[in-house]
Amino acid sequence: MKEKEKATQFCGAEDKQLGRECAASWVTYFKQRRVMEYNKKQTLDKLAKEGARPMPEGMGPPRVKGGT
Q1: Distance between CA atoms of residues 43 and 46, nearest Å
Q2: Confidence at residue 44, expressed as pLDDT on a 0 to 100 scale
Q3: Distances (CA, A) of 58 to 22, 38, 61, 62, 68
Q4: Per the domain annotation, does 3 fall within a domain?
Q5: pLDDT of amino acid 1
Q6: Structural domain boundaries enclosing 45
Q7: Residue 18 in contact with residue 27, Cβ under 8 Å?
Q8: Structural domains counted in the chain
Q9: Cα 46–66–54 angle (5° rounding)?
Q10: Are the C-beta atoms of residues 17 and 27 closer than 8 Å to each other?
Q11: Cβ contact 27:19 at 8 Å
Q12: Which one, 4, 31, 32, 60, has the greatest CB density within 10 A?
């Protein structure tokens, strides 16, 4: 995170609780997923501003059963 001090100020207690109550691998997973979802949204917003349109149904990569 680029603003680590700000994150610690606003989320320090929650971060400590997460570290106590969850396995380290899950803490890493949740933090990486949050960043990945943020980056995905930023990319989709940028593409929309550039005029990109969603692909027609069936034109994208195959979907994994149970996935998004």
Answers
A1: 5
A2: 92
A3: 39, 26, 8, 8, 14
A4: no
A5: 47
A6: 12-49
A7: yes
A8: 1
A9: 25
A10: no
A11: yes
A12: 31
What span, in angstroms and rounded, lies between the C-alpha atoms of 6 and 64?
Answer: 37
For residue 63, is it within any domain? Answer: no
Q: For tokens 């149970």, what's the residue?
A: 66
Residue 55 has, within 13 A of its CA and on its CB side, a CA count of: 6
Look at residue 50 in the predicted model and tell me its pLDDT.
Answer: 95
User: Could you state, in chain order, the average pLDDT of each consecutive group of 10 residues for the chain (68 residues)?
Assistant: 76 87 90 93 94 82 69
Q: What is the enclosing helix (H) or strand (E) of 60?
A: none
Residue 5 lies in a domain: no
pLDDT at 15: 85
Is 61 among the domain residues?
Answer: no
Q: What is the pLDDT of residue 32?
A: 93
pTM: 0.59
